[in-house]
Write a structure and sequence with these properties.
alpha/beta, 5-stranded parallel beta sheet, two-stranded antiparallel sheet, binds ligand JEH
């Protein structure tokens, strides 16, 4: 997968040299490039923002640098990328969308700042590539960089070979519609607190049932909305009794 990121704070993406994303870049699974939007400005102050038409607080990112940046990163001889634009007004970023994006050969992220990017940038881009405005949630950040880090981590871990133990992917909560059960490791007792006996029983049937029950209880308490969306077919009669 090829990923291009455009931002006025390219240094925000230094963490992408670390850990599993860093390894994915080193082995070629992920080909990532970060670009400074100011590289497409032509004035001495390298201006990227201006006052909003119609008034209102803050500043808006000018269309010209963005237009030149997106042109430079979408050469006509290559298939167009999918453009992702983090925004408070975006569609929710979900595990389902992460899976969708993990199947894309080329992602292009536009990181806005100030009050956002001139709408014409997105409208013009949509004439030549798929554009998705995406939001991490109902809170307001300073810009899109943090969202890109989150999205990239969620997508990269779905790429083949990135997660050593593929089981981690199939077992994780949002894959089965429930929150994951509590996890434990050694020692068997820590500060007087024991690991639940069932997890040390070696009885894999009991363990699976215990984890399922714990996941249902935890989901019901913390995310009843997820239970509402659960496919009834995925519940067996014992779940209903639980
Ligand atoms: C009603 C009320 C909820 N409204 C809210 C937004 N207000 C305007 C306004 C204010 C600040 C920013 C800062 N900013 C610039 C680019 C940018 C990209 C992503 C995000 C972002 N914030 N939260 C997320 N989940 C995001 C994502 N993904 C924020 C960004 C952008 C936009 C207007 C009021």
């Amino acid at each position: 997968m090829r990923v291009d990121i455009v931002s006025i704070f390219p240094e925000y993406f230094a963490p992408l040299d670390l850990s599993l994303i860093g390894r994915a870049r080193a082995n070629g699974t992920l080909r990532l490039a970060v670009h400074d939007l100011r590289g497409w400005t032509h004035d001495v102050h390298r201006t990227v923002d201006d006052t909003p038409y119609g008034g209102g607080p803050g500043m808006v990112m000018r269309p010209e640098p963005w237009g030149e940046a997106l042109d430079a990163l979408t050469p006509a001889e290559l298939p167009p990328p999918r453009l992702l634009v983090p925004s408070p007004a975006g569609v929710p970023f979900t595990q389902a969308l992460a899976h969708e994006l993990a199947a894309e050969p080329h992602l292009l992220f536009a990181c806005g700042r100030y009050e956002g990017i001139d709408q014409r940038v997105l409208d013009h881009a949509a004439t030549r590539m798929p554009v998705t405005e995406v939001s991490l949630g109902d809170y307001v950040l300073f810009g899109g960089e943090v969202a890109v880090l989150v999205i990239l981590e969620a997508v990269t871990r779905l790429l083949p070979g990135v997660l050593g133990n593929a089981g981690s992917l199939t077992e994780e909560s949002h894959a089965h519609g429930l929150l994951e059960a509590p996890m434990y490791t050694k020692p068997a007792t820590w500060r007087g607190l024991p690991v639940p006996e069932v997890l040390r029983s070696g009885d894999h049937g009991r363990i699976a049932r215990w984890r399922r029950d714990e996941a249902l209880v935890r989901t019901g308490r913390r995310r009843p909305d997820m239970l509402a969306g659960l496919d009834p077919q995925s519940l067996d009669k014992r779940d209903v009794a639980a």
